[in-house]
Amino acid sequence: MIPFETLYTATVIGAVAMVLLLKPGRRALRLVAAIAGLGAFGGILVAGLERLAPAEPGTVLPTIFGAIAVISAVRMITLSRPVLAALHFVLVVLASSAMFLLLQAEFMAFALIIVYAGAILITYLFVLMLARQSPTETAEGPLDYDSLPREPLAACTVGFVMLASIAGAIVADADSIRETTVAENTRLTAALDGFEDLEAMPRLLDRMAGEAFPGSTGVEIGEDGRRLRVRELEIVDDETGVERRIYADATVLFPGGEPPVEWTLTDADLPGNTRLVGMKLVASFPISLELAGVILLMAMFGAVVLARRQIELGEDERRAAAGLGRLSVEDPDTNSTGGTA
Amino acid sequence: MIADAPIVFAATAALPGAVGGVLLVSALLFAIGMVGFLTRRNMIIMFLSTELMFQAAALAFIAFGRMHLDLSGQVMVIFILTIAAAEAALALGLVVLLYRRRETLSAEAWSELQE
Amino acid sequence: MSLPSLLAAGDPTPLEIPLATTAEGLSWTGLILLLPLCSMVLCAALAALRNRSKLPALVSVLAIGGAFLTVLAMAFRLDLESPVVVHLFDWINFGWTADAPATVRDGEPLWRGIVADFGFYIDSLTIFWMLFVTGLGTLIAIYASEYMEEDRGVGYCRFFFGVSLFILAMSALVMADNLVLLYLGWEGVGLASYLLIGYYYKTPSAVAAAKKAFIMNRIGDAGLALGIFLTWVNFGTVEFGPLFASIQDPPEAAGSWAVTAIPFCLMLGAFGKSAQGPLFTWLPDAMEGPTPVSALIHAATMVTAGIYLIARTYPLFVAVPAALETVAWIGAASAFVAATIAMTQYDIKRVFAYSTISQLGYMFLGLGSLSAFGGAYHVFTHAFFKATLFLTAGAVMHGFAGQLDLRKISGLRHLPGWRIVAWAMFIGCFWLAAFPFTSANFSKDACIEGAFVMNTPSYRAAAWLGLIAAGITGYYSFRVWFRVCCGPVSYAPGDHGHGEHGEHDDSHGFHPHAPRLAINGVLAIIAVGAVLTGIPAYMALAGGENWAQQSIAASSAMQGDFLGDHGDATVLGMNPHLGVMVLGGAFGIAGILLAWWFHLANRQAATNLRSRLLASPATRWVPTLLDRKWYVDEIYHGLMTIPAWLASQVLHFFDKRFIDGFLVDGVGRITVLLARIFQPLYNGRLQGYAVTMAGSLGLILVWALWTWLGGDAAAAGELP
To answer: Taking the domains of chain C in order of start, what are their residue ranges?
Structure first.
């Protein structure tokens, strides 16, 4: 077992690398720092996964996407040109979305891309462009406040102390994480939950029955009020050994006195992630849903108000930018203590 | 009907380590986002770093949701998106306002709350 | 059998002091305290009202006179076969249960508590003392009414306030029925003395003298307080009645070192108050006060408080013969030293001050020689003639604008209007020199005689010292008389330029201001009184009873009465009584003749003698030593003042640098330093605050992780 110290050492190396990357320096130094940072990243993952998921092939994909995400994030915060930083953030979002897919959150993966990368980041880019129309910016490269970091040492120390503690917490709890990701248990539990959710969607069931058996009217409701009867089956296979699977039985009804047909549902008939997420959202978090709507409404109001005030102040700001004095001392919109950092 | 039904999770069934790896990546992204927030002086990049921290939180939610096979994690991420969007709108509006006052995007232009 | 042999046998209490009886219906005796108290309050009120009349004097004279009348009433109406205790009101009075105390006698717990009430213990000694205290007090108050008339106004009221306070405190002291009330009076007279010596508070020397007097008294008071504490611890009571009974039947605790220490502690207090031993230097300086004050307090009454203390607690002293001997020796030594210094002083009041110390020495010699009668009787006679002398000096000062140098005034008795003053001074000096057949001679001889009767080598040596001092006394007392009142008339004014008597100070237009009725009248009365104090002795000579001796014999000082039993002591072959009379008289007359020669017949001879003494190195030390008052002040300066000054410098430095600079300022600087350390956190920058917040959060996470992992150490298998 790789001990904890590796984790922390990698953290420290990563912190140092980060500091060096933040400051503008010679290219060679930055290259070395970048490599060191990568190594640190690898070290963290290796040290962590050693406990979390020892010797499993399933860690390859998360590692790759994770690397993309982390590298993009680092580039995002170290680049001195804000537009590039925003674009790198888009990359982070994409990698993140891929990781969502790995974790069977398909709906969220695409929602993330659409909302985050497609709306929020576009807004950021708009504002960035807008802000760079200022006449004070020179064409000689990035501005002072963009290129020079502020107390990188303190910030990295703080950040990586956090990282060490969080990562340490995760890794220390490795056992419970490991247990819950055993494939078979996962699959079975997912199937059971899925059939429960399907039970709660009777109209979908009827439609599925209609597609499977044209002319049917629906699924019969049993004596216990349930439409599906879930059962477990063990299959012995020479190749893959013992497997357990979940199946659900339903009785499809037909009109006109035709005899009902037994219908067995398998994993493939489970509703997709989108439907399941929707079900969960409306069934378990209705109030939060409403509140989210209210928040968005408030945000809209706020944006409109903020945008409106801008127009009133534009006159003063433009006068100040042109080097003319303030209109009057009593003007409440002027800043009496002026001065920049 | 009892056939070799394709197991939905087949392609992903061999990815138990995904949760652990994603969690670690989430921690890393959070730390990086925090460092970026504390380091960069450009206000917009600061907000971007906070968005990065949101990302890390979302990743963690999804990972833990997958771990406990509870879709609540994904529902949380929906709300995170909502809040992030609302916050981004208002924050950027404020940033523009502040920019118009001082002609600079530097966060250090606003340091009057001091002793 | 003689008392000395009794002492040798080790039985300290052959005579029994009668038990005191508590009397009812004698609360009128409280007038003695009440009248001066009212006078005090009235004078204070008059001072506040800025009264400019002689009303304070009138009030005080009436009050003190009333006290005197009360004393007379007590003397005639009370039957004093046994002492009478009058309880005025409860003061300190608490006890505790029988199972608490630690001292047990005969199975009975000794301490029932402490009782120190405002009450009087009236026996013949008390009456004896109070008579001259209040009597002289009244007369001197009358004298002062004229003497202090230039200060009419707030000062006048202040003066009589002080005088009334003094009489109040002195009465409390003398009449107290317990040591604590005595101590209260003791402190009260000290306070009054301080207030009155420092009456001319604008004069630095007066203020310094007042402080010196008070502080030296405090040294003695510490001894007295210690004595009181030891008395209570060992005898279980501070009240005189039970105390005397307890001494005659001492509890088991008595007889240890503490009981031996009690008289020495009390003696220290007595010496402080009565200016004996090394504690005498305050008395000459106390002459800075107005002359009536000097007369009343520092000659007649306050300084006798020490003798009264010893007389009152005589059984404690008699139980410890070493204490008696110490008292006698210190008295004799003081008598001698003070007399020698008085020989060389030019200031009349100083001469009298040193003579007071010297005469007090005789009284202590008497007390210490088991002649309490001698000591007390000499107090009585001394009060009168010393008061006379001081009052005449005051008259001279009053009339000659403060002139007190005896080289500058001469031939006073030839001046018109000064007759009474001159003859009063003669009587005073005559009595001071203890010319045979004066009352002072009887009392002084009684003191010295007692020392001879004790018949041990040290006592005899002390007695001889006393005799030699008697000769010197005769010399210096008549030195004053011959210089001031005899010879050619000449005078020069002093420097108390009183605006009302006008005229410039040293012009030939100066006329002495002759005393008027109040001064002359009082002088006459007191001088006559001095003569009359001999009546008890004359009556004894005539075969009757010596009233003074009877008073002493019936009081707690009774062991000091043995007039009659001389044992087998001899003085140069004569029996002590006769021997002392002859020798004392001879030495005294020799001194007077010397004074006549040097200060009347041939005044230049004194100056010549002095110059010759100073010229020769072998004898130069004689006048120098006496001039410098035996260097006692210098010794004090070296022993006390300089080390105290050094210590104060060290402490000042320590205080300033260490306590002030390091600790106090340091605390302030630490605060500022801490503020400066944390001040950058408040730089107003958002990200700075964010770093702080994130850092704190990180620390909390680390701590949480640590405790969480520490708890799951076994489960996690490996601690980070």
So the answer is: 325-627, 630-679, 683-720
CA distance from start to end of chain C: 104
C470 burial class (0-12, 13-18, 19+ CB within 10 angstroms)? buried
Per DSSP bridges, beta strands C84-95 and C113-122 are: antiparallel
Instruction: Report the 3 state secondary structure along C487-515.
Output: CCCECCCCCCCCCCCCCCCCCCCCCCCCC
B95 inside domain: yes
Task: Judge whether B3 lies within some domain.
Answer: no
Distance from CA of A170 to the nearest CA of B (A): 7
Name the residue among B34, B38, B114 with its Cβ closest to that of C684.
B114
Residue B73 lies in a domain: yes
Q: What's the topology of domain A4-181? A: Four Helix Bundle (Hemerythrin (Met), subunit A) (1.20.120)
Of A170, A296, A320, the CB nearest to B23: A170
Contact C691 A3 (CB under 8 A): no
Q: Is the pLDDT of residue A331 over 60?
A: no
Q: Domains in chain B: how many in total?
A: 1
The predicted model scores a pTM of: 0.59
3-class SS at C410? strand
pLDDT at site A88: 94
Distance from CA of B58 to the nearest CA of C (A): 20
Residue of B nearest to A112 (CA): B81
pLDDT digits (tens, 9 = 90+) for C464-508: 899 899 999 999 998 888 888 887 777 777 776 544 344 444 445
Q: Which residue range is the domain that position B88 belongs to? A: 20-108
Residue B97 located in a structural domain: yes
Put simply, the chain A residues between 202 and 231 with a CB less than 8 A from any chain B CB are: none
Tell me whether residues C694 and A151 touch, CB distance under 8 A. no
Q: What is the mean pLDDT of residues C457-461?
A: 85
pLDDT tens profile C303-333: 889 999 998 888 888 878 888 889 999 999 9
Which strand ranges, in their side-by-side order, compose the sheet holding C84-95? C21-22, C84-95, C113-122
ipTM here: 0.86
